[in-house]
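Give me the fold.
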Amino acid sequence: MKTRQTIIKTMITLISAFALAALMMQMSSCGGTDGKKAASEIDSTKGLKDFYKDYFLIGVAVGPYNLEGEQAEMIKKHFNSLTAENVMKPGPIHPEENRYAWENPDKIVEFAEANGLKVRGHTLCWHNQTAPWMFKDAEGNQVSKEVALARLKDHITTVVSRYKGKINAWDVLNEAVEDSDTTKIYRETMWYKICGEEYISKVFQWAHEADPDAMLVYNDYNTENPSKRDRIYTMLKKLLDQGVPVHAVGLQGHWNISDPTEKNLRDAIEKFTSLGLKIQVTELDVSIYGSRADTVGIGFTPEREQKQIDLYKMAFDVFRENKDDMTSVTFWNVSDLHSWRDRRNMKVYPLLFDENLKPKKVFWEVVKF
């Protein structure tokens, strides 16, 4: 009798084990216990843009040197939008009053057209990387407000008109809001000192007149900082109330493994979209260092790698949840081979691809959803 009972118990145990194993296999085939695929199950032939085709454009900032060889093939596989990292900024594209440097910007636009990629224009008005002649007369004296505005209008009209229909979005105004002084909204740039806040509405109006179909973006960093976020909001609300054609906010996304918090990122998106504006993440990279104090002799440790993964996963979870308001996410540079955030003898490894242009662990986490 005991032998028979023992056999029955053994059979029940075996059946339960087989049932559990079958359940685990089914969960695994559906992407694991959290509904997500394991990295080994992800189709490695797909590019980053393919995973996000139902969400938003995936872009990358490039120079002409990126558009050849292995990097060019990588760009075509993983991205469907390009931003000129430097060559469309006011100084490089318009170095002298009567001379425009079209060759390098044209190369980027032509590469995009030849390969079916969108283009974001960066940037029409900025206080940095603007040639000194914009603000000076022949004797080296500061020009009047009227002269400065006339030069700025000519610049914007000429550049936007050249690429009309070829550039789908423009960073019209870059970093015009005060970064830390809570007593004022506008940064004391040369444009502001000469023209006052009047230039801010005009740059959007001029860009819209030159290409009525282009999306016009206000672009800035630290947009997730509550204090600066609110100053940007105040400026944008005033512009919109005046009927100025602003269509989107660019969150630059020069982040690190400690910042931003999920709450601050969500709050910023909610704040700006409450104005009816779209969101573009325009210059995304995530340094493995959280502050200047922890940058000495550390390197790309497993701990920092995991923190970078966690930050990117959080951010893309938020981006996907806001896909109805998010029109593009652009990485600033192609891979860790080169990043503008690198310093002499110190790399910050901020992107999804390593120095050999291969996907890092963080890449697989960003596409695993």
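Residues 10-35 have pLDDT under 50 and may be disordered.
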